[in-house]
Every structure is written in C-alpha cells, then in structure tokens.
Amino acid sequence: MGKPLKVGIIGCGAIIAQYLASFRKLEQIDLVAVADLDPARAQAVADDYEGVRALSVEELLAADDVELVLNLTIPAAHAEVALKAIAAGKSVYGEKPLAATTAEARQVLDAAREAGVAVGCAPDTVLGTGIQTARKAIDDGLIGPPISASATMVTPGHERWHPNPDFYYQPGGGPLLDMGPYYVTALVTLLGPVVSVMGAASHTRSERTIGSGPRKGEKIPVTIDSHVSGVLVHASGALSTLFMSFDAVQSKSPNIEIHGERGSLVVPDPNHFDGDVQLFSLGAEDWETLPVSAGYVDSGRGFGIADLASTPAGNEPRAGGAMAYHALEVMESVLESAHSGSAVRISSTVERPAGVELTVLAGELDRLQAQEAS
C-alpha cells in the first residue's frame, strides 16, 4: 500500500489499550483522533498518543482526515455507530460482534455496499501464527480430510474481574456472542462455512455480583443465556461442537481440537494470536509441536485493520464484514435452535479467506530486529 490509513476511534474503554499497542508499531495505520461519551477518557488517550486529537463523536465523524472509524463501543451500539460512520462516507472496523443482531448487521453491510466503503470486524486473532499454522497444516493434508472439531470456552463469569460487566449479561452479550466470535470465526477459517446448526442453552443465575472495582459487591441482572452448547454442520460435511459457558469453573479440554482421517490437531486459544499447534498423526506415539509456518508474526488486535488497508479496493478483507456476518448468523441461529428445539439452516455463506503466509508486517520488522540486536 502507499500512504497509511488514517483511523479515528470511537470508544475509549478497556479494549483500546490493545489496539493502541498495535498501532504504535504498524506503519500501515495513522491514528489521528479518538472520541468517547466521556470526554475525559478520550483526552487521556490523546495526551498519551502523539498526534492524536480528542474529539466529540460528531466531530470525529465529520473529520476530513478520518478515513476509517474503529468502533470500540459496547455491542448494543455497534450497528448505530457503524451506520453513522458509513453515512459520513467512512469505512468502518468494529469490535465483535458486527452487531447485536443479524438484522442490524445486514443494514450495516447494505449501507456500506451502497456507500462504496469497506467493513471489517474483529476477531483478527485468526490472522496470527496460531490459527494460520493450524490452517496450513489442514490445507497441506497433515490430518487428511477433516471430520470433526470441538471448541470449548469455560469461565465462571467476567463479573469476577471486569469492573463494569453489565453488557456481558445483556442482549448482544453472553458467552456465545462475547467469546463465540473467536471460536466460530476460527472454525470457519479452518473448516469452511456452516450450513446448519442445533443448539441448547440455559442460565443458572438471574443476577451476578461484581467482584472488583468501585462497584464491587453490586448485583447486576442476567437477561441472556449464560451456558450454550451447539453443533455446527459445515458445508464440507465436517461437524463442530461448541461448549461456551459463563457458568462452569474450568476445563482441561483444548480450546479447539480438529480431527481428520489421518491425524488430530490441537489448535491454540483463538482469543490469542499465537500459540503452539500440536499434531498427533495416525500411527504416531505422541503429539508433536508443529513449527510456526503461517500468519502475521507477533501480531495483536488491530492487525486486521492493517490487513484491510492492504486489501485491493473491491475485495473482501480477511477480517471482513462477510465473515463477521456469517459468524453472527451461526451464533444467533444456535440460540434460536436452543429455544425452538429444531435445527436451523444458515442462509449466509462466506468463502474461506486466503491464508496468510508467514509475514512480518512493515514497521514490525524494524522493531523485531532491534529486539534481536539488544
């Protein structure tokens, strides 16, 4: 690409620190402005990041030098903010999920298509060396034709550590819509699109107690399912099982495990960008750790925006709206099936994005070389 993509951020909550860490080392991105409903939070970011202006949301959307809006608001506001950014003629990249519902997400994609702007969406963890090395192993035939996969995410609840966990237990939250995007996006990246699902869900408590911060001890209501299981049928014929819980305590199951005719893979945590990929080949005596062979090296949140910036105009970004929409429909349909007791067909589809070759992005190379020299 030529010049850096000029980015403005709306939402200066806890997650912004991870994006800022990436932006400081990516020459593909030029952060120019930030905004938040709390002006003090935006100003604190601007004070700590050279060349960044603290603006109101309206001022940021109107700013001529903002080409893409990074939407870090709560899930319930994702669609509203995205639509305002698109209406202002700006591309948009959002935290997951793309929107609280597929109906809202479709409005975002339709508006972007009509405006001729790009849509990207987290998670971009699938672009890191962990998931991409696993994908290359599958594409290279190391396990043979994939048969099945399992994905497990267990935590006793984010209220134990998050000082403002309310949105995790409101519509748009819950273990599936909060953490499921990492797992479903990884499964689609590894095994291809999903054609139908079945689900079951429950919640054990009607309220949660905040465990840290100034609101410690305050009780908040739970209005969503906090334990979800699902079966995904991929177009390839592979079957994936999901186990997503804010109710259980812990698990020894791999985050993701893929089984084929000639071997099995343990895939690292899809909430992370790296991690070991382990292979047990048919006839082997033990697991072997595969060498890192694909993905963006030493990546972090925001690398999906750098990838979007280098995507030719008119092409779908790897961490793009089509993938985010498909993952959202899969998750929404698992919950629909859980309540109806019937299988649900998935109306959308998506092409598996092209694999990421083992890549050190420009800007990262200098930093890594400096580390090696020191």
Automatic annotation (TrEMBL):
Sorted alphabetically, which Pfam families does this protein's record hold? GFO_IDH_MocA (PF01408), GFO_IDH_MocA_C3 (PF22725)
Enumerate the spans annotated as GFO/IDH/MocA-like oxidoreductase domain. Answer: 131-266
Q: What is this protein called?
A: Gfo/Idh/MocA family oxidoreductase
Organism per entry: Arthrobacter nitrophenolicus
InterPro entries for this protein = Gfo/Idh/MocA-like_OxRdtase_N (IPR000683), Gfo/Idh/MocA_oxidrdct_glycsds (IPR050463), GFO_IDH_MocA-like_dom (IPR055170), NAD(P)-bd_dom_sf (IPR036291)
**Which stretches make up the Gfo/Idh/MocA-like oxidoreductase N-terminal domain?**
5-119
Q: Name one GO molecular function term.
A: oxidoreductase activity
According to the record, the signal peptide region is none
Query: Which parts form a coiled-coil structure per UniProt?
Result: none
Sorted keywords for this record are: NAD, Oxidoreductase
Which Gene3D superfamilies is this protein grouped with?
A: Dihydrodipicolinate Reductase, domain 2, NAD(P)-binding Rossmann-like Domain
